[in-house]
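Researcher: We plan to redesign the surface later, but first we want a full-length starting point. Tokens attached.
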């Protein structure tokens, strides 16, 4: 996947309702990012790859300047495109791994105010729940099905391999 950034070029409206385009060529990336969105009456996009953290920071500053632009305007369109490109860069740059099954279960229990006894009621017994949560016993297919149905946990997270605690 190639990631791109957007350079915003100023477009001035002239009295005859036609547009005269001029490229604003500031000397630094920071200057390019600091284009005052309130003065931009139209936007022409030049798309290029985000190659570095500096490109990313520049794109964020440009987004900041365009925030609040009305939808269905050139500025709003530029904002939407730029946000999409930055999101793609962030997904590629800072990948978030899915949690292991036990971490996912613990997170759901904490977020929903559930206790180990609630987990035990789903999978059969308190000792079994303790063994699973302490990583001494793996989740079984029936446990995964029950957790997926009852707690709406994605089965693909629950079937991931995870390490068990070593036996003593």
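Model: Full-length starting sequence:
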């Amino acid at each position: 996947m190639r990631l791109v950034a957007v350079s915003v070029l100023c477009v001035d409206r002239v009295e005859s309702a036609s547009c005269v385009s001029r490229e604003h060529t500031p000397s630094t990336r920071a200057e390019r990012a600091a284009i005052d969105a309130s003065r931009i009456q139209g936007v022409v996009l030049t798309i290029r790859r985000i190659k570095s953290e500096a490109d990313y920071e520049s794109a964020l500053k440009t987004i900041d300047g365009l925030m609040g632009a009305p939808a269905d305007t050139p500025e709003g369109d530029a904002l939407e495109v730029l946000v999409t490109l930055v999101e793609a860069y962030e997904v590629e740059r800072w990948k978030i791994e899915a949690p292991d099954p036990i971490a996912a279960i613990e997170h759901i229990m904490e977020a929903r105010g559930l206790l180990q006894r609630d987990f035990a009621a789903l999978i059969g017994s308190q000792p079994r729940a303790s063994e699973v949560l302490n990583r001494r016993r793996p989740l079984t297919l029936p446990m995964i099905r029950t957790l997926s149905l009852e707690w709406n946990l994605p089965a693909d997270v629950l079937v991931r391999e995870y390490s068990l605690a070593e036996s003593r």
